[in-house]
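During the no-cost extension, the postdoctoral fellow (Dr. R.K.) reprocessed legacy sequence entries with the updated structure-token encoder. One reprocessed record is reproduced below for audit purposes.
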Amino acid sequence: CINRKMALGKNKKAGKSKKGGKTKRTDPFLRKEWYYVRAPSVFPVKLVGKTVVTKTVGTKIAKDSLMGRVFEVSLADLKENTENDAYRKFRLRVEEVAGQNCLTQFCGMSIAADKLRSLVRKWQSTIETHVDIRTVDGYALRLFCIAFTNKRDNQKSKTSYATHTQIKNIRKKMAEI
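Re-encoded structure tokens follow.
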């Protein structure tokens, strides 16, 4: 006679719980602090917005993680009642943290991509150059300039391209100015 018994209770993993148990999930924003971002004194609107940072824990200080952050802000947000300047974007870098305020300094300016694309047209030449400038108070700036050729009033031809020599002369004039 063959003994056919099932192996009940032989599974060693059954009934044991996993190591560590379940950890309770907490909301990550409970470990965050909010700071105000302030614009430089040149602009009429002082409050740019708010930014979030992880609270100071151990050796990781919240102030250090805020330093050097760069915010891109439209000029329309920095001035009052001007929506015509919305295509100019200013970059502001956090230089100092005072209490709950992040004090910023001008870091750069650019034109919105849609505005730049609206300027570029067919049948004309686009001339670009850059110039490095040092201001009186010691700041180094790199200016990028862009120019376009356009038709004259009495012009019959469809295109208004500039020759290579004309482009070189225009670039030289742009660098002088």
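The chain has a mean pLDDT of 89. The two ends are 109 Å apart (CA to CA). The remaining legacy entries will be reprocessed before the final report is submitted.
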